[in-house]
Amino acid sequence: MSIRKEICRIGRRLEEKGFVAATDGNISCKIAPDQILITPSGIPKGDLTENDLIVIDPEGRLMEGDRKPSSETLMHLAVYRERSDVYAVIHAHPPITTALTVAGVTLAQCVIPEVVVTMGTIPTAEYATPSTEEGACVIKDLIHETDVIILDRHGSLTVGATLKSAYLKLEKLEHAAQITATAKMLGQVKTLSKEEVAKLVDLRQKLGIKSRTNPCDSCSACRK
Predict the structure, then answer these.
(1) Which of 16, 72, 82, 195 does the annotation list as catalytic?
(2) What is the mean pLDDT of the segment spanning 136-154?
(3) How far is C-alpha 180 from the chain's CA centre?
(4) Which CATH entry fits the domain spanning 3-223: 3.40.225.10, 3.90.350.10, 1.10.10.970, 3.20.20.70?
(5) 72 is catalytic
(6) pLDDT in tens, 63-92
């Protein structure tokens, strides 16, 4: 499948899953050292066609296509500048994940074993005005620590070496948010002990899963 087709497929998936509404969200993929394929502004992700996609350079200048670049282009470009290993970026508005930020509930705590193993802790960036340079600023440091960032009142940012890996992290994030929100309604969210987290970190290493943070030992997300 071509990269253009894959972006359109993921765009439909975002809409089907309810991870975006109307024209929300944006998807990009680094296709060459100086070329980034990105979704344009103003088109529902479920309606995207291959011809709608545009190509920009690392500074955001239009190289191919005649549509306006995504309103969150600066945030995508910041990721590619900070992480040479990232080739795909997805910004979505998963509703439960976003609702937790409004309620002040963090997902940085170690609660779900599978999440700890595959993604580590999930930090929430400081609030930034959407579609401005603030978005790029608040994720600049965090993106060195994780592939998954929650944006305060503004959804999520997931990255990966492929479009599929970035998308699957988004699914896992919203699933973790659903479990956490349900647990809150039922009473309380019980976190894993430091000893259990250590076992999960060891398991992650045995499975060859590289994480950019070590929960409890080096991550300060829970204390933010």
Answers:
(1) 72
(2) 96
(3) 18
(4) 3.40.225.10
(5) yes
(6) 999 999 999 999 999 999 999 999 999 999
